[in-house]
Amino acid sequence: MGDKVGDRHMSVRDSNRRAARPLSAAFVRTVREPGKYHDGGGLGLILRVEASGSRRWVQRIVVLGRRREIGLGSPPIVTLAAAREAALENKRTAQAGEDPLALRRHSRAFITFATAAEHAIAAKSGEFRSDKHLKQWRSTLDTYALPVLGSLPVGQVNTADVLRVLQPIWKEKTETASRLRGRIEAVLSWATAAGHREGENAARWKGNLSELLAKPRRIANTVHHPALASSDTSAWYAALQHRNGTAAQALEFLALTAARSGEVRGMTWAEVDFENSVWIVPAGRMKARREHRVPLTARARVLLERMSEAKEFGAHDKTSIVFAAPRGGMLSDMSISAVMKRMHEAEINAGRVGWIDRASGRPAVPHGLRSTFRDWAAELGYPRDMAEMALAHDVGSVVERAYRRSDMLERRRAMMSKWADFLEGDASNADVTQISSAGGR
């Protein structure tokens, strides 16, 4: 990678010999070789990559006759475009005879962490996957960060302050604490880019908090969603088909497609391609922010066709929700979970064990059906990458995903048809030809 970096983007030392080419967003995302990479364009913007792997933006600029270096935050939180915008504003300030650093110091006295958090959330509003994601951001900051940091000038927040927030919950609520750290880092990066603080980000993990806190993966207790045992799946599916209502139909469609609850509940008729038997989920509704194609098996297609016929507008009203709530709009996540809960309670009332996760003993939940599908696919020898694609998981490195053009749609269609047969109790699944995992890569 070093040779490619040298060809496409010069270090600051090399730029003395010839003008540097502008950096690209792709280069900023992937560069790992230590060095100083000049953006070109006359703004003095530099991407500094340290041996530790940390990266940060700096700007070299002449202020009142003196050469100065100004920190502008770190990628990926501060994007190339944002760094250029901040660098341009600094240069305008300097050319007007003012000191951008002095203006920063002056402004920092008036901006608290709480105010910076509001600005950072507003700036990132387009990145949130849903209102729920936005509420989670606010909730963790309100609950844990603001009581400690909220009234502090954002320019004065240091690593010790961040530790006062994280240490009390780092071991007991590791996943929440880890996400909170990233959100504090984002707020401080916004403050740096906006001119309200300078220097290293106090919430940065690598080479900073990583030396003071235990690695999350070493201390976190992974809690899996309770899943149906494979041996219970066909009996559960048969019981589900005796349930009426839109939520029950949504749960059945979720089981057939191994999709996430939010993807099914937000599905519109415009996403359904009956001609090619494909459900196309737009990038904006996907966790990975990429379009996802789901092959519709015969059973899934029949379910949708029946719903279309039963609706007054049906599939002709492209903007309407497929699995709409009784009063319109999306079903709640709890409505689908409630169907599964009532099915479990009915089993208990009949004197049976119920639909439980055999490992944990907890009642199975809708999201656990994805784990059941994944276990089934592994047991039958389907290629790992193909099963992961069916679940809309990232497969391979960033570079591999950039070059991959096939999503194995037709191969996944055959696999999902076998999965539908399995749900319906078709014993012929035992005769599925084993497929080498190596063959799917």
UniProtKB/TrEMBL annotation:
Family: Belongs to the 'phage' integrase family.
Annotated PROSITE patterns: CB (PS51900), TYR_RECOMBINASE (PS51898)
InterPro entries from the UniProt entry: CB (IPR044068), DNA_brk_join_enz (IPR011010), Integrase-like_cat_sf (IPR013762), Integrase_catalytic (IPR002104), Integrase_DNA-bd_sf (IPR038488), Integrase_DNA_bind_dom (IPR025166), Integrase_recombinase_N (IPR010998), Phage_int_M (IPR053876)
Organism, scientific name: Thioclava arctica
PANTHER family for this protein: PROPHAGE INTEGRASE, PROPHAGE INTEGRASE INTS-RELATED
Record keywords: DNA integration, DNA recombination, DNA-binding
Protein name: Tyrosine-type recombinase/integrase
CDD domains the UniProt entry points to: INT_P4_C
Pfam families: Arm-DNA-bind_3 (PF13356), Phage_int_M (PF22022), Phage_integrase (PF00589)
Presence of the UniProt keyword DNA-binding in the record: yes
